[in-house]
Amino acid sequence: MTLRPALAALAILAAAPCIAADAGVRTERVTFKPGTSSTLLQGQVSGYDSVRYLVNVRAGQTLAVRLVSDNTSAYFNLLAPGASEAMFVGPVSGGTFQGKVLAAGDYTVQVYLMRNAARRGEKADYRLAIAASG
């Protein structure tokens, strides 16, 4: 019978990183000014914090995202609506994405620091350009 409490404790410990991972996540809705299809955002991330930008895009539109930062360890990932895995991974693909989207909905642009920089408590000031056209 001591197995049940041990399994419960293990389940709690296994969930802890997931809970902690979302602790420093800020979410912002991206809107374009009337008559425009792009915007330039400025922000800062530090340590393990990150910012999720939600951009509503129609199927068939071209989405363009570009990140410029004063810290070379700052990157962004791009996730399609409802996806759990990134369709664009900044550390692998660089600081610029441009492509036609297949599905309509909220695309997530997540800006963050790589683990080595986050562990050291570094910060990154950044500019994020987002455009949806077509």
How would you describe this protein?
The structure is a single chain. Helix content is 21%, strand content 48%. The protein has 134 residues and is α+β, with helices and mostly antiparallel strands. It has one domain: Sandwich (Jelly Rolls), CATH 2.60.120. It has a five-stranded mixed beta sheet with strand order 1-3-8-5-6. It has a four-stranded antiparallel beta sheet with strand order 2-9-4-7, with no helix packed on it. The chain starts with a helix and ends with a strand. The model is unreliable at 5-20 (pLDDT under 50).
Number of domains: 1
Helical residue percent band: 10-25%
Strand order of the largest sheet: 1-3-8-5-6
Query: Could you tell me how far the N terminus lies from the C terminus, measured between alpha carbons in angstroms?
Result: 62 Å
* Annotation, overall tally of beta strands: 9
Rg estimate, integer Å: 17 Å
CATH topology: Jelly Rolls
Q: How many H/I helical runs?
A: 3
Overall pLDDT confidence: 88
Percentage beta strand: over 45%
Which series of helices and strands comes N to C?
A: HEEEEEEHEEHE
The major pleated sheet works out as:
5 strands, mixed
Low-confidence stretches: 5-20
Q: What CATH first level would be assigned?
A: Mainly Beta
Oligomer: single chain
Please state the overall shape, judged from the principal axes of the Cα atoms. globular
